[in-house]
Design brief:
Elements: E1 14-15, E2 28-39, E3 44-48, E4 53-57, H1 61-66, E5 72-80, E6 87-95, H2 101-108
Parallel strand pairs: 1-2, 4-6
Antiparallel strand pairs: 2-3, 2-5, 3-4, 5-6
Length: about 110
């Protein structure tokens, strides 16, 4: 008799602007911006997309150490909190320095 295995899929990360995080109820998001500061104590950084800023908390010291101030990155993660208190718990931090920032933002804003 064949055993039925349940396949659990992760929800897709919804691309959005940082300003939309506090008003959105999506569980997983994708945000893009520039790292403007880092906090070693809680392995976090502030991400700025040009319009808004958000605190991003990393899952690992390795992810935190790879991120540099001034770096353009994409973060996949979960939203914690609402409104002005929204934060993102990072699952993946992707280096976007080699991406044409203006072209990406032009495409994203369509």
């Amino acid at each position: 008799m064949a055993e039925n295995k349940e396949i659990i899929r992760r929800a897709p990360a919804i691309p959005m602007k940082i300003s939309q995080l506090g008003e959105n109820k999506e569980s997983r998001v994708s945000i893009v911006g520039t790292v403007i500061s880092k906090n070693q104590e809680i392995t976090s950084f502030i991400l700025d997309d040009g319009d808004s800023k958000v605190l991003v908390i990393t899952n690992s010291i390795q992810d935190f150490e790879r991120v540099k101030e001034g770096q353009f990155v994409r973060v996949f993660g979960k939203i914690w909190g609402e409104g002005e208190e929204a934060e993102v718990q990072a699952e993946i931090v992707q280096d976007f320095n080699n991406i044409d920032k203006d072209l990406y933002l032009k495409t994203f804003n369509k």
